[in-house]
Design brief:
The protein is mainly alpha-helical. Helices cover 81% and strands 0% of the residues. The protein has 5 helices and no strands. Helix 4 runs antiparallel to helix 5.
């Protein structure tokens, strides 16, 4: 893999990730603070919505590939580890480390970004090959 290409893709991935994180975090805060949903429900709903935003942004912006139904159906696999790790971390941060539930999701994201880049690249670009 070309290092220059990787750096460009990773840079776009980070920018898309920032947009996606802001989308998720905005939804999370609105649901948790304005609608008084418990932090875990707010996390799950925000995650599902931002997953869809992430799919299209990663297709069009990060990897510059055409979104297809097949890729859309595979894309949640890129988030299985992310969702698992972030959910566990949020729970640990809030329940055991007593971190504010408004900050815990942001802290969890710091651990999941590199893993998500690698997995999403493999799945989205791997399914992009013609059959």
């Amino acid at each position: 893999m070309n290092v220059k290409r990787l750096n460009t893709e990773f840079t776009r991935f980070v920018v898309v990730g920032v947009i996606n994180t802001l989308t998720y975090y905005s939804i999370y805060l609105v649901l948790h603070n304005i609608f008084s949903l418990p932090y875990m429900w707010s996390h799950l709903v925000g995650f599902v919505i931002s997953l869809n935003v992430s799919f299209f942004l990663n297709c069009y912006v990060t990897y510059r590939i055409k979104p297809t139904l097949k890729k859309y159906l595979y894309f949640p696999l890129t988030q299985v580890v992310n969702m698992s790790v972030s959910t566990i971390l949020i729970f640990i941060f809030v329940e055991f480390l007593h971190l504010n539930s408004n900050i815990a999701p942001f802290a969890a994201v710091l651990f999941t970004v590199p893993i998500t880049f690698i997995v999403s690249s493999k799945i989205l670009k791997g399914t992009a090959r013609p059959n």
